[in-house]
Amino acid sequence: MPDYILNCKGICKSFGGVHALRNVDLRVQRGEVHCLAGENGCGKSTIIKAISGFQPQDSGTIEFNGKVYSSLSPVVSIDLGIQVIYQDLSVFPNLTVQENLAINTVLSHKTKIYNHRQQREIAKKVMETLNLNLDLDVRVEQLPVASKQLIAIARALYAKANFLILDEPTTALTRKEVDRLFELIRDLKAKGMTVLFVSHKLDEMYEISDSITIMRSGEAVYTGPMKTLSEDDFTRYMTGHDINFDTDKHPEGRIRNDVPPALEVSDLSGPGFRHVSFSVQPGEILGITGQLGSGRSELCNTLFGITQAEGGRISRDGHEASIHSVNDAIQNGIALVPEDRLTEGLFLPVSIMENITLVNYKDFTRNGILSHDAQEANSSEWVREIHVKTDDHLLPVQTLSGGNQQKVVLAKWLSTKPKVLILNGPTVGVDIGAKYDIYQHLRDLASSGMAVIVASDDLAEVVRLCDRSIVMRGGLMSGEIPGSELTAENLTKAIM
Fold it and tell me: Under 8 Å CB-to-CB from 435, ≥6 apart: which residues?
């Protein structure tokens, strides 16, 4: 007889007539790592908010540790041992490690006097339990993302959690940091902790999860063991149809080797990287891979004029290009889809249309007057071309899912008609359906003669999408892997 620590039955939630959850059942066995998967907008966040008490359901029940609740509040949820660690980690950067560990307990118990010595002893014990070696007196803002995440987990244990919900926990981690996190999760599981693991990354789901629930359009469409779920079945449950990511990866004649390189980099150095040389032909999709901190993002920023080159040469179509600013890059036919769409790629409160047409607004201006009709026509065309799912392109871009927001960023830079398109982490935080759309569009762009550069630490993405890949490690180009040898195994060996 299964021992369920969490048993959600018939959970429903609506917002203004829109059904976010429809009779969702979610059962998690005690002491397991259970994956919760689904495309953006499928209801994952809503069910998590119901479990954590942040946003109670309209109907249905939540049974936790054998007791049935019609709804939970945040205080009750925390007292039950439920802790959510969100993607933004929700740590206090201006507080010390110890203060971050103690704050939830202090606030929930309405403590009027902070006992520094007592809290320090508890903090030390938690750190010992997790085998962490962090200075309790250092401000959290001085620590890397991986350490902040470990602090968030430690804080949950400090509050005596027995049910951890990890929301996209590996997004900003290197492979070594992911390994450390998974080692910690396995240790916690061995000690009786239950983990609800929310992720888009299929390889990580197989690696760490015992079972999985897949949601689609507000419903739980599959629950079962992780190890018996094939990748094809996973994709079908996620999207409702079959997807073949590897379709037409290398069509004959796409890469133009009879003309000068669309972009050539010779002994290029800049902030965070040194002595990088490579070229990419029209019609080619070139990968740049490496762990966080390898220099791949810094290289992209220098190619786009965000940071200044400190040596070497950049050439376009066989001619040396002088790139000292973003405007120089655009004038040379180079565009960059940045790593963080929320802070670097979009103005979230502004409309989809304005985001798409922002870079080339002069094309819609006559005698100093902006033509809104021309602007709307251009935006509508891109929304159709890129398959942005929206009822109205005049809505704020923040109303879109992550995948559709990424499509808007792509449309914005494609509207500049680049010859070289650089994408840094093109599908980070993007669901599987939007990822397929983006892959297909990038292949179409390459087939039209555009040179495409994909910088990514998602090895499966590099293998599926790219014709070949260069590898960055420690700020240096450590090698190049041709298409015939481009496998996840070879990439892993090269970047480690």
Answer: 245, 403, 427
Query: If you write DSSP's letter for every residue of 68-86 in order, what string do you get?
Result: EES---HHHHHHHTEEEE-
The span from the CA of 323 to the CA of 315, in Å, is 10
DSSP assigned state of 376: H
Helix (H) / strand (E) element for 203: namely helix 202-208
Q: What separation in angstroms does the CA of 184 have from each of 177, 180, 438, 451, 475?
A: 11, 6, 34, 42, 29
Note the pLDDT of residue 444.
Answer: 93
Q: How far apart are CA 191 and CA 5, in angstroms?
A: 15
pLDDT in tens, 191-226: 999 999 998 778 889 999 999 999 998 999 999 999
CA-based torsion, 401, 202, 224, 437: positive or negative: positive
Task: Tell me which of 420 and 349 has the higher pLDDT.
Answer: 420
- Map tokens 């119901």 to a residue: 50
Amino acid residing at 337: V
Residues 6+ apart with CB under 8 A from 36: 26, 44, 47, 48, 196, 197, 198, 212, 213, 215
| Integer Cα distance of 241 and 275 in angstroms | 46
Q: Shortest CA distance to 363 belongs to which of 377, 373, 376, 375?
A: 375
Q: Which residue has the tokens 């439920």?
A: 82
Rounded (10°) CA dihedral 155, 161, 162, 165: -60
* 72: CB partners within 8 A, 6+ apart: 50, 51, 52, 53, 56, 62, 64, 80, 82
Q: How far is CA 156 from CA 42, 91, 344, 362, in A?
A: 27, 12, 31, 51
Amino acid at 77: S
Looking up tokens 């297909």 gives 440
Q: What is the pLDDT of residue 348?
A: 86
Helix or strand or coil: residue 103?
Answer: helix
**Residue 439 token pair:** 């892959």
Q: Can you read off the two tokens belonging to residue 371?
A: 């033509």
**How far apart (Å, rounded) are the C-alpha atoms in residues 383 and 381?**
6
Burial class (CB in 10 A: 0-12, 13-18, 19+), 260: middle
257 three-state secondary structure: coil
What is the C-alpha to C-alpha distance for residues 329 and 333, in angstroms, rounded to an integer?
A: 6
Q: Which helix (H) or strand (E) holds 358?
A: none
- The first and second tokens of residue 61, run together, are 């029940």
Burial (0-12, 13-18, 19+ Cβ within 10 Å), 23:
middle
- Can you give the pLDDT at residue 113? 65
pTM attached to this predicted model: 0.72
Read off the pLDDT of residues 21-54 as tens digits, 9 standing for 90 and up: 999 999 999 999 999 998 877 899 899 999 999 9
